[in-house]
Design brief:
With 403 residues, the protein is an alpha/beta fold. The chain has 4 domains: 134 residues, 3-Layer(aba) Sandwich (D-Maltodextrin-Binding Protein, domain 2), CATH 3.40.190.10; 107 residues, D-Maltodextrin-Binding Protein, domain 2 (3-Layer(aba) Sandwich), CATH 3.40.190.10; 99 residues, Orthogonal Bundle (Helix Hairpins); 30 residues. It has 14 helices and 11 strands.
């Protein structure tokens, strides 16, 4: 059997001994070998192994890696691999003995990254009701101030204009004070009611904002959404990731390939440890066999950081299959014995011993979350609009005064 190792050369020491040490390296190769060794013994055959550092792709008309070993007769079969039509003249695919998945793994981006959280605390009906009540309050304060002006006016009293009434209402909406206020008891009661009601809304609004700043979104579920997002797209630094992205010609996968390997700049390929750390930091999608990534996630992530993990499948392929040399005299024997391994539960037992499933979110706990400029983008944009409007008003006032 040709065994593909890509994580660590120490696999060449641990795999023949089956000591289950360093399970984080080449776990699928070890599972495949354990199952094939049992299959050989069931066939009363002597298990022998060789090692290869590549799965096998055609380059300049020549096969490389594991497929080259099978094609040359150095090996009768190889490690589980994804079915590829280019390899069909060389090998026949039999059964799967170590199912694995190759996907993009990432944490869902924070909610402020995909939505304006400053409009989310209240529904649209509440915002409309708030606007209507503010206008109604402004009109009521305007009537009260008009009545007060008829009975005398002090320097800090409202002038009885609609502009002053709107200014007082906007001061209440933004929880700011106003230098001008009613002097009579009726107007003061109106102002007290407005400030009290808006203070309760302001408290509810602030509490919701704090929660939403730390909440993950649920925005990315498909390959198209991932391609159109601003998340960094990267892949594990292994040979198959340098080949499979070039096999697909649809626009979405071409877009992902261009982001992974841009024409200018550095290609986004990382080792497992660095890739998982970048996943933990967020806004980073990492393409790899998922189980080694999950093993590292279990070792390094906090509990609340496991709750927003997401997978997106790029290849849309079937389970990997064992390649056997085409027209091999052992083909039917291996097919039968692989089925027996599956039916007897040996394959499942090997898989459960050496693999780590997707981390479960057992419970969510609150934690400190820093707020960056990106989270406050809607507020900063609103401030820029306000500055622009105020400058325009100043220009109009100066023009009106001179005219």
């Amino acid at each position: 059997m040709a065994n593909v190792i890509q994580d660590s050369n120490s696999t060449m020491y641990h795999l023949p001994r089956e000591d289950r040490l360093e399970p984080q390296f080449d776990a699928y190769t070890k599972i495949s070998w354990n199952n094939v060794r049992i299959a050989f013994e069931m066939l009363n055959a002597t298990p022998r192994y060789i090692f290869s550092h590549r799965w096998g792709y055609k380059q300049n008309g020549t096969w490389t890696g594991m497929i080259a070993d099978i094609n040359s007769g150095r090996a009768d079969l190889g490690t589980n691999c994804m079915a590829n039509t280019e390899r069909l003249p060389i090998v026949t695919y039999t059964d799967t003995i170590a199912p694995y998945r190759v996907k993009f793994i990432f944490r869902q981006p924070p909610l402020p990254y995909v939505a304006n959280i400053f409009s989310l605390p209240f529904s649209s009906q509440v915002w409309i009701a708030l606007a209507v009540c503010s206008l109604f309050s402004s009109f009521a304060i305007y009537l009260a101030s008009r009545w007060e002006v008829r009975h005398g006016k002090s320097p800090a009293q409202l002038d009885g204009t609609i502009g002053d009434a709107l200014l007082l209402t906007m001061s209440a909406v933004s929880q700011q004070g106003c230098a001008m206020e009613p002097r009579r008891i009726s107007g003061r009661i109106m102002v007290l009611v407005v400030f009290t009601a808006l203070m309760a809304l302001y408290a509810a609004y602030s509490a919701n904002i704090v929660v939403l700043l730390q909440a993950p979104s649920n925005a990315i579920h498909s390959l198209e959404q991932l391609a159109n997002s601003k998340i960094t797209i990267a892949a594990n630094e292994v040979d198959y990731n340098h080949f499979i992205f070039r096999l697909y010609k649809d626009p979405i996968r071409i877009m992902i390939h261009k982001r992974l390997e841009p024409e200018r700049g550095r290609a986004q390929f990382y080792e497992i440890d660095e890739g998982v750390e970048r996943i933990r930091q967020g806004l980073f999608a990492f393409h790899s066999i998922v189980e080694p990534v999950y093993r590292r996630i279990e070792e390094t992530f906090l509990q609340q950081e496991k709750c927003d993990l997401m997978e997106v499948d790029f290849m849309k392929g079937f389970d990997p299959l064992v390649p056997v040399k085409k027209d091999s005299p052992y083909l039917e024997l291996l097919r039968v014995v692989f089925k027996q391994l599956h039916e007897s539960g040996i394959r499942s037992a090997q898989f459960e011993r050496l693999q780590v499933a997707k981390p479960r979110c057992a419970y969510k706990v609150s934690s400190f979350s820093s707020v960056g400029i990106g989270d406050l983008q809607p507020v900063l944009v609103l401030m820029l609009y306000g500055i622009a409007v105020s400058c325009a008003i100043v220009v109009l006032e100066i023009a009106y005064f001179r005219w």
